[in-house]
Amino acid sequence: MNVIDTSFKPDNSKSVIKPLILSHGTLECRNMKETRAFYEEFLGLECVRHALPAMHARCGMKFSIVCVEVGDDVKPLGVLNHWGLDVESREAVEAAYHAAVEMKDKYKIREITKPTMRHGIYSFYLGDLDGNYWEIEYYDGSVHEDAFDFGDRYTMDGEPV
Is the CB of residue 67 less than 8 Å from the CB of residue 55? Predict the structure, then answer.
């Protein structure tokens, strides 16, 4: 199993704001009780309810997702707005896919794509009960580390570097 170093000193000496870490992002849910069960029991996230309408969810890094309960006002997202969860092998992706298919009704999973190889990553996507998407992925390395280690491959004008 890959052990990923989850800390580094950010190079933000030229920026206006000098953040220490990217601490959290937010998403919406309809029913926090059902969503928490899905996050903990199926996705394997650690959750804590820190406010009446919200909870933090995390996994392995100093970053959390703040899930805010908004009831039927939840706005479903598209698959390009997804959260990635890395697993330890292609077999773990396959096992997660089969579990998602088997437990689709229990956790109100709306959509499940078939596992496939995309841009060097073996993965599948699932749309959850709140209209959020999750990519369950295996990459031989660290997607996070490699993306930044490789650096820009294209300029902001779309030209190869």
Answer: yes
Closest alpha carbon to 128 in 48, 52, 49, 45: 45
pLDDT tens figures, 114-159: 999 998 999 999 999 999 999 999 999 888 788 888 889 899 999 9
pTM strictly above 0.70: yes
Token look-up 């309960």 returns 69
**Can you name the residues that pair with 138 across neighbouring β-strands?**
122
Q: Which domains does the chain have, with CATH numbers?
A: 24-144 (3.10.180.10)
140: amino acid identity, one letter: D
Name the strand (E) or helix (H) holding 98: helix 90-102
Local structure of 95: helix, strand or coil: helix
